[in-house]
Amino acid sequence: MPYYGFFDPTYILVILGLVLSMAASSYVNSTFKKYDQYRSQKGVTGTDAAKYILQQSLITDVSVQRVQGDLTDNYNGSNKTLNLSDATADSQSVAAIGVAAHECGHAVQDAAHYWPMRLRTGLVPVANLGSTLSMPLILIGLVLGFNQTLIHLGIFLFSFALLFQLVTLPVEFNASARAVRILSEGGLLTAEEVPMVKKVLFAAALTYVAASLATFLQLLRLILLFGGGRDRD
């Protein structure tokens, strides 16, 4: 990979990844704020929606709890808790119901032994290890005279972060699809509200798509810079 003065052209890939991530984050925030203004016609809250989905799915071992923060909602499969943020738990907005429903979708996946979710859970320690060790190994390889073994090992470990991101995509899209189907079939959402919830969840899903693309671009940059095994002197 040629350099032009002090400019590394592969930085374009880093910048592109940042732009994609920022655009996705901005879009999800604007979409949530837009539909956070629409109050549910049935008057249900995010907590009501979550409990309804769990009940309809015959899930009795998951508790619904409140956590501090804004959009810090999550499902914790290790202790079977569905954690709803202050912005979601008591809100009757269509956006809040969508967020709560999505997290319930993960609880439904867990109960159904949805294999992509189990695969993602299994990849967590490997992806974390890869993210932690990849760059130090590459840097050590450079310090030791462009040691190809260490550099290629670092790139290989970084690829697990991309694998984790890719496996996450179907898990997130499927969780939303399950939740919206239960809400719409059960009558908690009106015909006008279903498309609104879908737009909120689609915007949220785009953040995972952007994260995957950004990670891919970072991996591509590492391969372009160090993967060829050519003499850098």
Automatic annotation (TrEMBL):
Statement: the UniProt record of this protein carries the keyword Disulfide bond: no
Alphabetical list of InterPro entries matching this protein: Zn_peptidase_2 (IPR007395)
Superkingdom to which the source organism belongs: Bacteria
Segments crossing the lipid bilayer: 12-32, 123-144, 150-171, 200-224
Entry keywords, A to Z: Membrane, Transmembrane, Transmembrane helix
Entry keyword annotation includes Transcription regulation: no
The protein, known as: Peptidase
Species of the source: Ligilactobacillus salitolerans
